[in-house]
From TrEMBL:
Residue ranges with Low complexity bias: 472-486, 497-507
Organism the protein comes from: Zonotrichia albicollis (White-throated sparrow)
Keyword tags: Acetylation, Angiogenesis, Cytoplasm, Cytoskeleton, Isopeptide bond, Nucleus, Phosphoprotein, Transcription, Transcription regulation, Ubl conjugation
Name used for this protein in its record: BCAS3 microtubule associated cell migration factor
Family, similarity comment: Belongs to the BCAS3 family.
Gene it is expressed from: BCAS3
């Protein structure tokens, strides 16, 4: 490795291929020595150091190239050892897919000037009634840059869609106000404005719905949203009681003393409200016969109507077209959940891969909340939002810019603008992380066999039901949402509980699960950045500005993602990768890229707490982290651009064709280039051509990918083609 260059030209696409270099804690100090040896002599000779382009943002992208649910190349991922690549997008714009072999290959590189946001649009979901108008142009790239295609629009006020197959611009969407971010899935393209959200259909790019009631955030995300495979979560500017879901934010495991204080505060508030009614009526502002709702509405008009920390989740498939308005007069069609998540404005949020967990953070950055979303088919007021975890980062303020889940949803990494990535252990069903839940390569059940056989599960449920709240041991007092200042009294709550008291197994009913406070097991900070040292004096410069919303000095962008280890080549260049080599790690590796173009793989090793007197299933955890490999992905001004049109064997084009073909088969349509028409049942028969001799579960796992969200998996399981072929099983 020492004699080979880490960069070499690509043989198929013409881009640059970067090989991994071994990275250790010591290598950071060695990089400083190398920097002094290279730069200090140049300071005396007058030779300037190699100039590198400034990176304004970084992101790990989900596209057709690494779509494990719709790209049939990855459907047998566990049996063939084939892993999807990590697709890194650097904001000026360069695409770097990191293959399982450890090589990062440049697939796309342009110089568009300042680019605020960019996304690779995945192939849309089609059906017999809905076709893709841009099928021959895909894959598409959506870009928001300072100068739009028209040249007359204000800066960052348009989204241009380019075809990576032909190189032409196929669509331009204009706005009157600046755009701050882009999000997309196989259903919609979401354009994020300062206090608005506009969603466009992914097949036609016509406007589908828009939201104008977003709560603004000072940054780094001016209008934070989370887009899953089907649901869209955004920060609402008010709390509507009739749409409020059961549950929501709970205090940080507040005990009885604080719960008592809250109860006393509620009593004082009630007394003050009564005094306010009398004073208002005496002054003649409202008539004496005015109802309580009219008085509250009048008081809200005099005060600021904006309420921070409220989250609304909508179903992008069932929501009505036009404006999405959550109000007293609107119905709940398309509204999945509506609940308070924080007391401060929301700064960032993200769904887990299944779409059932939502992590939210506020502008302070002290605590991050993990919610479990349990929907109800009638209305959002019957849905339940379980506050499973409060992830406590610390007492100092920090702005969160990135949140990422592991594929099994047992680990969450939250990155701040200070460049620190905090790694937290969680369980998809809640509860305290321990040796039993996180020292196994697979997700374990909530209760062990011993706990079930001993009847501890029934005892725990009985004790929980007798308590007055999930965070307070005092009967009648609670720091849960129904007893906190964030929440109001639910409509007909007592009647509803009495009616369903004989069904304690419904997860949407009380008692809610207990809240767990978790501290980070690891805090990975970025190493010393050589780019901030001047050439002559060695004094540090102010940190560069990252984006228009990140203008405070000392802040720089990072992004993190979990993935299979790719450091085997850097440490053992002469060995071949074994298929099961990646299974020896309990946790996937953590990849962190900084705004200086350095991508580092960190190996995470959880273990029982070393200070524990005895190791058991309930022993707490600690974690060791170690950097194993690094990739230098920063571009120099001398690099050639790599622009479309691309050849048919380009990886981005091959992935788009594979996903589109799979979409045609699922929809029962004729794929392009097929010899003749096929029916819907025949399309599934083509997927099940090798079904003979296989178990039903094994064949179903190839059609219904394990990475599908819960709603999509149900559609596949109950499809007539599948039920007809599998019979009663």
């Amino acid at each position: 490795m020492a004699t080979e260059s880490p960069r070499r030209p690509s043989r198929c696409t013409g881009g640059v291929v970067v090989r991994p270099q071994a990275a250790t804690e010591q290598s950071y100090m060695e990089s400083v020595v190398t920097f002094l040896q290279d730069v200090v002599p140049q300071a005396y000779s007058g030779t300037p150091p190699e100039e590198k382009e400034k990176i304004v943002w970084v992101r790990f992208e989900n596209a057709d190239l690494n779509d494990t649910s719709r790209n049939m190349e990855f459907h047998e991922i566990h049996s063939t050892g084939n892993e999807p690549p990590l697709l890194l997008m650097i904001g000026y714009i360069v695409f770097w897919p990191l293959q399982i072999s450890g090589e990062a290959q440049e697939l796309f590189s342009v110089r568009h000037g300042p680019v605020r946001a960019a996304r690779i649009l995945p192939a849309p979901q089609i059906s017999a009634q809905k076709c893709d108008n841009f099928a021959e142009k895909r894959p598409l790239l959506g870009v928001c840059k300072s100068i739009g295609s028209s040249g007359t629009s204000p800066p960052y006020c348009c989204v241009d869609l380019y075809s990576l197959r032909t190189g032409e611009m196929v669509k331009s969407i204009q706005f009157k106000t600046p755009i701050y971010d882009l999000h997309c899935n196989k259903r919609i393209l979401v354009v994020v404005l300062q206090e608005k959200i506009a969603a466009f259909d992914s097949c036609t790019f016509t406007k589908k719905f828009f939201v104008t009631s977003c709560y603004p955030c000072p940054g780094p995300n001016m209008n934070p949203i989370a887009l899953g495979s089907r649901w869209l979560a955004y920060a609402e500017n008010k709390l509507i009681r009739c749409h409020q879901s059961r549950g929501g934010a709970c205090g940080d495991n507040i005990q009885s003393y604080t719960a008592t204080v809250i109860s006393a505060a509620k009593t004082i508030k009630t007394g003050l409200t009564m005094v306010g009614k009398v004073v208002t009526q005496l002054t003649g502002t409202l008539p004496s016969g005015a109802s309580e709702e009219e008085i509250l509405a009048h008081s809200n008009l005099r005060r600021s109507p904006l309420v921070p920390g409220i989250v609304t989740i909508i179903d992008t498939e069932t929501v009505a077209e036009g404006q999405v308005l959550v109000s007293e007069d609107s119905d709940s069609d398309g509204i999945v959940a509506h609940f308070p998540a924080h007391e401060k404005p929301i700064c960032c949020m993200a769904f887990n891969p299944s779409g059932m967990l939502l992590v939210t953070t506020d502008t302070l950055g002290h605590d991050f909340h993990v919610f479990q979303i349990l929907t109800h088919p009638w209305s959002s007021s019957q849905s339940a939002v379980h506050h499973l975890y409060t992830l406590h980062r610390g007492e100092t303020e920090a702005k969160v810019q990135d949140i990422s889940f592991s594929h099994d949803c047992r680990w969450v990494v939250v990155s701040t603008l200070r460049g620190t990535s905090h790694v937290f252990p969680i369980n998809p069903y809640g509860g305290q992380p321990c040796v039993r839940t996180h020292m196994s390569p697979r997700v374990v059940n909530r209760m062990s066999r011993f706990q079930k056989s001993a009847g501890l599960e029934e005892i725990e449920q009985e004790l929980t039901s007798k308590q007055g709240g999930r965070c307070s041991p005092v009967p009648g007092l609670s720091s849960s949402p129904s007893g906190s200042p964030l929440h109001g009294k639910l409509n007909s709550q007592d009647t509803y509980n009495n009616f369903t008291n004989n069904n304690p197994g419904n997860p949407r009913l009380l008692p809610l699960p207990s809240l767990t406070v978790v501290l980070p097991l690891a805090q990975i900070k970025q190493p010393m950045t050589l780019g901030t040292i001047t050439k002559r004096t060695g004094k540090s410069k102010p940190a560069p500005q990252i984006s228009p919303s990140k203008s405070v000095g000392g802040e720089f962008c990072v992004a993190a993602v979990f993935g299979a280890s790719r450091s085997w080549f850097a440490n053992n260049s002469g060995l071949k990768r074994e298929k099961d080599q990646s299974k020896q790690f309990v946790v996937e590796s953590l990849y962190i890229v900084s705004c200086y173009g350095s991508l580092v793989e960190h190996v995470l090793e959880p273990r029982p707490l070393s200070t524990a007197p005895k190791i058991s299933d309930d022993t707490p955890l600690e974690m060791l982290t170690c950097p194993r490999a690094s990739w230098a992905l920063v571009r120099t001004p001398q690099w050639n651009e790599l622009q479309p049109p691309f050849n048919a064997n380009h990886p981005l084009l091959l992935a788009a064709d594979a996903v589109q073909y799979y979409q045609y088969l699922l929809a029962g349509l004729v794929p392009p280039g097929s010899p003749g028409p096929i029916t819907r049942h025949e399309s599934y028969d083509s997927l099940a051509s090798d079904h003979s001799g296989q178990e039903d579960e094994e064949w179903l796992s190839q059609v219904a990918s394990p990475h599908m969200c819960q709603q999509e998996l149900g559609a596949v399981l109950y499809h007539p083609a599948l039920t007809g072929s599998m019979g009663s099983s």
